[in-house]
Amino acid sequence: MRCSAENTSNTSNQGAGGVFFARLPQAEAVAVGDDEETNHHHDDDDDDPHTTSNSRNNDAPAQLALRQVTTYHDDFSTSICTGLFADPYDRSACCAAVCCGTLLQDLNYHVVTGERPIPWWKRIGYGVAVLVVIPVLGSLFTTTSRDDPDAAVRFTLWGYLTAFLVWGIYSTHQRKALRLRILQDIMGQSVVAMIVSDGNPSITTPRSLTTHTTTIGTERRLDGCGCYRPAKVHRCCSCVERDVMISFRQVPYDASTEEEIRLLASQRDVCTALWQGLAVLCCGCCGCWWNCWGVCATAQEHRELRRKLPPERFALDYVTLQPYAEYVPLLEEVRDRQDTTLWGHLTALSKLSRSILWGVTIALLVVTANIFGHQSQPGERLVLVMATLGQALLVLYLVHWRYHRFDLSLDAIIKLFGAGFCFATGTAMVVELLTSMLGYLVLVIALVFEVVEDDPDDMPDSNDTDSNDKLHFLQSFAKRHIFTFVLFSAFNAFVVASLTEETAKYFSFWMVEHPDYDLQRQREQSLHTTAASITCGMVAVACGFACCENFLYIFGEGLSLSGELQVLLMRSCFPVHPICAAIQSIGICKRDVEHDGTKLGQALLPAVLLHGLFDFWLMVLGVLAFIHAPDIPEQTLAPIEPNGEKESGQQKLDPPSFSSLAISFLIVAVGLAYYFWASPQQRQRLNAMMATQDSDLSLALT
After folding, report:
1. Which of 18, 302, 356, 496 could form a disulfide with 92 if both were Cys (CB 3.0 to 4.6 A apart)?
2. pTM for the full model?
3. CB 378: neighbour CB atoms within 10 A?
4. pLDDT (tens digit, 9 = 90+) per residue, 584-610?
5. In the predicted model, what is the mean pLDDT of residues 579-587?
6. Tell me, what DSSP letter sits at residue 684?
7. Alpha helices in 36-147, H assignment, sequence order
8. Who's near 249: CB < 8 A, 6+ residues apart?
9. Quick check: 671 and 583 in contact, CB under 8 A?
10. Structurally, how many domains does the chain consist of?
11. Contact between 682 and 589 (Cβ < 8 Å)
């Protein structure tokens, strides 16, 4: 939706601008980004002294700049579709994407009202009850027969889907009530009293929030363009009209304008381009932005609250909403006395970290009871569970506890590990499912066109129940179209797996707000400490992600004890996730510590390439092994033990398997070599920066 300059001249909000070139009558115009000052003086363009002098004193056409002025509906300072990559230091969008925005909504509600939302133990109890009740109902109301053996499973899946949709609709309506409560407090005295009590009475009641909240329901209001539009921001799974209004003003082109154009161009990278492409896809054709369960609206309101309220109001942990001031002194005390004992660090933990440790303890007790009650060889399997968890803890001991326990607190490590275990894994699984479905759709379409050229006599009979014929047909078909399968493997390796997982790990690290990463504290500590805290934090997230993934691979495939042990040993020998996280930290330290202009895509690219190459080799090896298998049933179907479990890991190590292990080790070694090559170079650059800072400080003192 576009609006004229007259309709947006009186607004005073700053947004994201674009860079392009155009030509005005008798002047060459270069468009630059937004300027908040220009919004207030838009009506005074004719009296601009610079513009007047340029037009009077120069016979040649003066070079002018078009400054883009972007405003948004309801007086918001950002768009509802402002994405994850618009501001590299904005964590609200990452937090809004987790748990359908519940974490961020609880924080918003507590910041404004001072009240606590529903406790999480009740929410978890409701979730566990749903997970248990639906399968029980499925077993009671469905009958399993030979004709329909999956009736109970199908009932359970549909029950989970229905419960998830009902929960989404219910939570959306609950959020409406919460926003109405926020509106009442804002219209009364809570927010104004909080602001005035902080010694900043010049900040008035957030009009954007009041306007935004009053549009809940079926009301229509007059927007900035004079058009009525329905307020659908907080409805469940709705389309929100594009809220961006763009206008332009004419300013003189000078050196500062050229510098602004250069700065705007330097802020673009592949991640911002991808998000803008998504925004154009959703907003360009139909003029609407897809809003799912109020996630985008929650992030938009949080950004607005950040602008209106003092930053001290947001110094809270998620979930427990404990203020930083309650446990930061304990963390600093541990650092000051250089306490090297584990107990000393445990006594300084926050409520959230203690809750995470209690949750892990309860989960281990439940798993232990299940193993001794239903599994064969319970002692060995319990040792395997502890070894799976211990593998991640060993990496954290070597990376964090042994060398950097005072650079980043144990409290932060626990929270980051939990974020990787829960949020990174869940996000990656959902995104991988969606992208893999898209990839399979493209593969099927490509194979359909290729099958047309094949001999129909080679197709297996649909009534033939012999699995050998079908497997042999698939083998010959894959051999004829091996290039298509290799391309599909590359898509799965570099896009579905590598790009998704590395991005999920980064944003899970970035969403954790902890006082150890406070900008003021980082200014007071050495650059090496800041860089070490970033590396340890990203490795902690990766260890949590890898630990959860190991549990799924080891205990979710129905393998025997020897097969589970083999999978654990193989995944322990190839710690790809921690290595890729360490490589990511090199780029993030360049961006946040060295400030060399490194962008997010550049920081993640080496890790994405290494992870994708590792997965691509394993996938291609699987395709080649399937094509060249001399006897498919014996190669693909594992023998069954008397107890009904699949036997795995009993085959001899043939030459192809040995070569695959060797190349996998080589890829991991290349990743380690890259990190140990780049890390000392970064350390030298940090030393040079610290020496420059010390010399500048000594000159200033003298």
Report:
1. 302
2. 0.77
3. 14
4. 999 999 998 998 888 888 899 999 999
5. 96
6. H
7. 36-40, 49-57, 92-96, 102-113, 120-141
8. 5, 38, 42, 45, 66, 67, 69
9. yes
10. 2
11. yes
In this prediction, residue 550 carries a pLDDT of: 92
User: Residue for token digits 């329901």?
Assistant: 217
The strand pair at 63-72 and 27-32 is best described as: parallel
Residue 493 belongs to a domain = yes
Helices (H), 574-654: 576-589, 600-627, 632-636
Rounding to the nearest 10 degrees, give the CA dihedral for residues 318, 319, 321, 327. -80
User: What is the distance between the alpha carbons of residues 539 and 412, in angstroms, rounded to a whole number?
Assistant: 12
Between 408-417, 452-461, 554-563, 632-641, the lowest mean confidence (pLDDT) is in 632-641
Neighbours of 470 (CB within 10 A): 15
Q: Check if the beta carbon of residue 18 is closer than 8 Å to that of residue 222.
A: no
The model's pLDDT over 609-622, given as tens digits with 9 standing for 90+, comes to: 999 999 998 888 88
Question: Is 70 exceeded by the pLDDT of residue 534?
Answer: yes
Same-domain check for residues 297 and 390: no
Rounded Cα gap, residues 3 and 1, in angstroms: 7
Whether residues 307 and 391 share a domain: the answer is no
Taken in order 403, 409, 413, 419, the sign of the CA dihedral is negative
Q: How far apart are CA 545 and CA 621, in angstroms?
A: 25
Q: How far apart are the first and last CA of the chain?
A: 58
| Domain contains 74 | no
- Please answer whether residues 31 and 65 qualify as being in contact, where contact means their C-beta atoms are separated by less than 8 angstroms: yes
| Number of alpha carbons in the 13 Å side-chain half-sphere of residue 691 | 6
Is 384 within 8 Å of 378 (Cβ atoms)? no
* Cβ count near 270 (within 10 Å): 14
Tokens at residue 464, please? 């033939």
Greatest mean pLDDT among 67-71, 87-91, 565-569, 608-612: 608-612
Token pair listed for 569: 């040993």
Residue 205 lies in a domain: yes
> How do residues 630-643 score in pLDDT, each as one tens digit?
544 444 434 434 34
Tell me the sheet residues that pair with 65: 30, 251
Range with top average pLDDT, 120-129, 272-281, 469-478, 545-554: 545-554
Mean residue pLDDT of the chain comes to: 74
Half-sphere exposure (CA, 13 Å, Cβ side) for 81?
A: 22
Domain with 110 in it? 92-314
- For residues 299 and 87, is the Cβ–Cβ distance under 8 A? no
Of the residues 275, 297, 314, the one at which a domain ends: 314
